[in-house]
């Protein structure tokens, strides 16, 4: 966790915290925090980078092994709206490494719905990702109450806005949510995939791994829910979804020129 702001409440200094790798947004008393050394922080980043690289390498290797050179492929276009610019940059880099066509915009979670209204008519969107910070506020107690969550209502509003633009769940595939988000409410709003079934932290790149599986599944094939979630870091505790058709369009014959 990193400190992004400090406020004073009833004489106590309260730190506003953001996850470094997991999409968590929380607060804590400054006196309860433990400062990490630069060496500890570097070790943490390197450890996660190695795990992520191995997963990316495995995905790319499997894809190249299965690829049939007589066909050419037209991948879907991904639009990723994120409430955190650092996480967005991580995801965009991962999309590029996976050979996916993706663009990204950084807006606070409460502005996602309004942002969609602006950009939806200006560009093609086949897969929409709506992510950012979220958390379950335990003091409210009720896990079924969407107001017990920091940003889940904003994700729900954005998904509903997207579904007004394109109601068909196989024409526009949507992933939405952050750490500990209200999974059921986001799915009910119209998302294909969301976080978090067990109100767990999710890894910053979990949405990317979901998108990759959808992007590499032919459009006449239903994505395997078990396989797609196995590609993520946090698994079924962190992400889940509904049956969805793939978004990869193939063509024939292949040529020496690039599409």
Description of the structure:
The protein has helices at residues 38-66, 85-97, 112-119, 152-165, 183-189, 206-215, 225-230; strands spanning 2-9, 12-18, 25-29, 72-74, 77-82, 101-106, 127-131, 173-176, 193-194, 240-241, 249-251. It is an alpha/beta fold. The strands form 3 sheets. Strands 6-5-7-8-9-10 form a 6-stranded mixed β-sheet, with helices on both faces.
Q: What is the structural class?
A: alpha/beta
Treating each run of at least 4 consecutive H or I residues as one helix, how many helices?
7
**What is the percentage of strand-forming residues?**
15-25%
> Strand count, sense and closure of the main sheet?
6 strands, mixed
- Give the ordered list of helices and strands: EEEHEEHEHEHEHEHHEE
Shape: elongated
Termini separation (Å)?
Answer: 42 Å
Average predicted local confidence, pLDDT = 82
Low-confidence stretches: 40-46
Overall helicity: 25-40%
Please tally the β strands and state the result: 11
Q: Within the largest sheet, what's the order of strands?
A: 6-5-7-8-9-10
Based on CA atoms alone, the radius of gyration comes out at: 19 Å
